[in-house]
Amino acid sequence: MKRHVRPYGDTTGDGMVQTSFTLPVPAGPQADGAAQQLANKMGIDPAMVVHSHPIGDDFTFFVVYGSVRHIVDLDDVRVVERDYPLLPPAEVNTAIKKLLRRKLVVVGACIGTDAHTVGIDAILNIKGFAGEKGLEYYRELTVVNLGAQVSVPDLVRRARAGKADAVLVSQVVTQRDAHLLNTREMAAAFREAMGERRPLLIAGGPRFDPLMAADLGVDRVFGRGTTPGEVASYLVHALQHRKEHA
Amino acid sequence: MALLDLDPRVVATARELAAKAAEPVVALAKAHTTVAVERATLRLAGITGADTTHRAGDVPWVNRVVDTVREHCGLEHGVALPVFHALREHDLTSLTHLAEATAAGQVRYTLPTGRDRERARKAATAAVTRGLRTVDRNRAHRDKLVAKLGDPPQRPWIYLIVATGDIDEDVVQARNAARAGADVIAVIRSTGQSLLDYVPEGATHHGFAGTYATQENFRIMRAALDEVSKEVGRYVRLTNYASGLCMPEIAVLAGLQRLDMMLNDSMYGILFRDINPVRTFVDQRFSRQVHARAGIVINTGEDNYLTTADAVDAAHTVTVSQLLNEHFAHEAGLPDHLLGLGHAFEINPDLPESFRLELAHALLARELFPDAPLKWMPPTKHMTGDVFHGYLLDGFFTLAGLLTGQSILLVGMMTEAVVTPFLSDRDLALRNVRYVLGAAGGLREDFRPAPDGLIVTRAHQVLGEAVDLLHRIVDDGLLDAIADGTFGLMKRPATGGRGADGVVEKADDYLNPAADLLEAHP
User: Fold this and answer.
1) Whole-structure pTM value
2) Interface ipTM
3) Are B273 and A115 in contact (CB < 8 Å)?
């Protein structure tokens, strides 16, 4: 793989992209020109406004194709690479047995006003996600799914009472950064209540940036498309790490 | 025309079993009241507004009054008698004054006896009757507007969601949606409202992923849609949510503000919001009685099961829930034409023949409930963020709805699971629907599934599985079935869940004029 890359349309290096947007301008030649200008400013040059369509009297929708002049430097790309091996469920179970000699307790919840349990359910419910069974399926995991709209104090209490090894919170709603505020509040509450003995804290949701873990005060952040197997493998990895450094 | 050749005896058995399964739950609902039912009664009797001086923020007057009555003399007799007795005893001119005096700690509620009881009963009945008259007038007004402006020219009706959090922005979006072809506008509620044990007050501008359901927001949106209805020459319907802890109150507010459809499922709150099962069944019965009186179409939430459970494996749980919803609705006085039973296009598109399976399930619902305005819900679970693929899936969803004669079509958004729809997303989605309706509008008359083909066989299989499950539910009891995770894989024990402390067993002398009037004239 080359270090410097451009988008690929049908020829290496052609830089071709496709985008669509709406402008608050009535349809017509002026609107098309405005779309052209925006595309140019986005770095698409030359830009072809291949489609424009009025939405009501005041808006126009555009589809634009064109070549971007930007170049991506792969050396400058910063992402969280998975720093632990992906284990099949049987190996996760064996590892937990060896590490803890008891079941590992996972408490999951959607905190704050968020009522979207789809994320936490995909990870926890036996039904699972993307063809992988959820954490309930793992013999050596005890899963407590508190469901939606759990308050932070309630979560701390339940995690403590249940002697949770790990706490998973899911946040889907992102209006006014609710997901970030809620997660920080949760991390602070666990720190205050339990200090170093707090469980592993894991946040997940489609709009989270995995790079934000430290900033949010949690151990790990999982973004869009995370599967139950990745979470289970991470739990084993993190517990091993904790034990080695205890 | 029947295409599936369902055995009428099996269908009858399914209905009998649903009735049997529901029987103990209906008895439970009749034997209890809840704080929300009592508050709804006071709203019908004319209490509006909130205590703005309370330290907890705006607390609706109905909450203050019901909580105080409960403290003084319990709720097992109903609030109507103590409230209307106190009104006369303290010589107050209105219920709002009574509420203010209650907040100031000046009212001592007692249960009247003898002639006082009779007087309080009469006064309460008169007040509630006035509220119901408003509901009746709204229903008549809707009928008049529909007669004048007309219903949508096509079936399915096109149902579109707005959800900005700000009622004023919602109005702009709703008007545009109606002009672009929407027949039904649903205003999604703010995340978390279902778990509030009070109804917020006034016009609101700061919801999370939706707009708070308040009486004033209802009024504003209905007025806006009345205007745009005239402009587009058809009556544009308004939908909101009678669900969560305030289900009965929101049903009353919907009746008072002429909403046209309400989401109102018999089990959704239990399964997906962890609301106490008894609370839900009591609240649901009262709210459905109100909907029946108001001529409001209820929308049930079977689509939700398929977002947690597998749409093929759990297809029969949808049928079972539809049969239960139908029975609970009939029992509460709702006729078939107000039963928007729900189901959804949620089968994994990678599964071979997934479209034919969708047709089988949708057709089964159509033929089991021929007179119900079925609500057909778009794919959400398998919308991945690949908006291009999602757009195609939504097209197939609309085609399935068309072929199987669905009544209300919730327009699918290609941005499902990505962002709240852009203006352009909604426009593209409506163009998608219009294309399918235009290109294949009459295809239903050519659609004749082979008598022993996959579609017919599968529909029979699902109905058979539904009957088997109903047998088990009758044997175990519906509450236990819910506790065991039969629906949507959620396990909800009857004693658990939110709002359980708001449930009260009725005493022998319980009186609620609203319940009595609704029972007598649904």
Assistant:
1) 0.85
2) 0.84
3) yes
